[in-house]
C-alpha cells in the first residue's frame, strides 16, 4: 500500500486533522451565530447552534471511528510479520491511539454547547 | 479588606471558591498518590513492581484514570459556569468602563457617575455591564466573581450579589499599559439604607462653598482648567475624559487605588501626578497653581464627601 519514500505520517495524523477541523467549525459556527444574533434561532424546530454542533460532532466521530477501525484491522490482520517492509507496526498503532485521543477531544469540546448557554 | 478567591463575599464567589478548593485538594491528593506509586516502583518488592509495570496498570492509571477525572471535572466546571450565568429578575444595573488607568462607574437607572469605587447594596441582585474606552482591560474582584474582560466596542455582562457588608479590592487583570499595576479599585458592600444615602449624596449638586479658603479652591479649580477633564456634579465643570470628582473626599483611595486619600496625598497628586503614576493622562499642575492655590484646591476637593 505504501509507496516507497512516501511518508506514513499523514495517516497517523488523520485523527488530529478531523479534530482540528471539528474545533474550527464549531468555534466559527458559534461565533458567527453570536455575532449575527442567530444564537436563539431554530432550524426545522431544533435549536440552531446545538443542532449544528451536534451534527458536526457526529460527523467528526464517525470519521475518527473509520480511521481507528481501519488501523485496528491492519493491526489485527495481515500486518504482522511484515514489519519494516510496508507500514511499521508502530505507525499503525499510533494512528489508532491518535484516533482515540481525537475522539475524546471532540467529545470534550462539544460538551460546553450542551451545558453552557451560548454567547454568555 | 477582601482580595482573594478564597475569601468569597457572595454566592457566585462561593461557587468559584468551592471549585478552587476542589482543584487544590484534588490535585494534592493525586500528587500524593503518584508519589506513593513512585516510591513503590522504586523501592517495592519484585511482585509489586511487576504489577505496577503491567500493561493493565499502565492503561488504568495512565489512560482511564485521567480521562475519567478530567471528564468529571469538565462536566462539573461547565455546570458551575452555567449556574453563574443565571440571575434574579430586575437587578440593579451598574456600568463600568475601563480606561487607562482608572474605572468609570455609572448607575444608569439612578443617573449618577463616579469613579474607582463601586458601592453595592448587600443582598441585591446586580447586573454588571463592562466595556472599555481605549484598550482591553479586565475587571477582577476576586472575592466577587471571575475575571470579566473589558473590550472596546463590546459589552460583557455578569450577574452577582454580595451577602455581607465589607470592602473588596479589585484590580485590572489584563495588561493595559505602563500603569496597569496601579489600576485598582474598591467595592464597598453596604446595607441598602446606607447605599441609598450614598446615592443621595452623589446626586446632590455641589454648591460653591461659603468658607473663603474652600471658595478660593473652587475658583482655582476653574481657572486651572481642571473642568476640561473632570466633572463635579452641579458645577459648570463637566469633563468626562478624567474621573468624576463628586464626593472625591469620601473615596477610599486616589488615582485608582494608588494612594491613600487625604489632603497631603491629594495635593501631591495634583502637583505631580506624572511622578507618582508616570504615563497617566493627568498633567502636572505644580507650574499652574502656586502653593496656596494648590492647598485650596486640595482642601475643597477633600471637602466633597
Keywords:
heterodimer; A: 120 residues; mainly alpha; two-stranded antiparallel ribbon; 3 helices; 3% strand; elongated; B: 305 residues; alpha+beta; Immunoglobulin-like; 2 domains; five-stranded mixed beta sheet; 12 strands
- Which value, in Å, is the CA radius of gyration of chain B? 26 Å
Write down the secondary-structure element order of chain A: HEEHH
- The chain-level mean pLDDT of chain A equals 81
Helix content of chain B: 25-40%
The fraction of residues in strands of chain B falls at 15-25%
Task: Report how far the terminal alpha carbons of chain B are from each other.
Answer: 21 Å
Q: Using the 3D structure, state the CATH architecture of the largest domain in chain B.
A: Sandwich
Summarize the biggest pleated sheet of chain B. Answer: 5 strands, mixed
Tell me the strand order in the biggest sheet of chain A. 1-2
User: Radius of gyration of chain A from the CA trace?
Assistant: 18 Å
CATH superfamily of the largest domain in chain B: Cupredoxins -  blue copper proteins
Please trace the helix and strand order of chain B, writing H or E for each element: HHHEEEEEEEEEEHHEEHHH
How many helix segments of chain B?
A: 8
Helix/strand-derived category of chain B reads alpha+beta
For the largest beta sheet of chain B, what order do the strands appear in spatially?
3-2-1-5-8
Q: What's the count of strands of chain B?
A: 12
Low-confidence stretches of chain B: none
What share of residues of chain A is helical?
A: 55-70%
Helical stretch count of chain A? 3
> What's the multimeric state?
heterodimer
Give the strand tally of chain A: 2
Précis, in short:
The complex is a heterodimer of chains A (120) and B (305). Chain A is elongated and about 55 Å long.
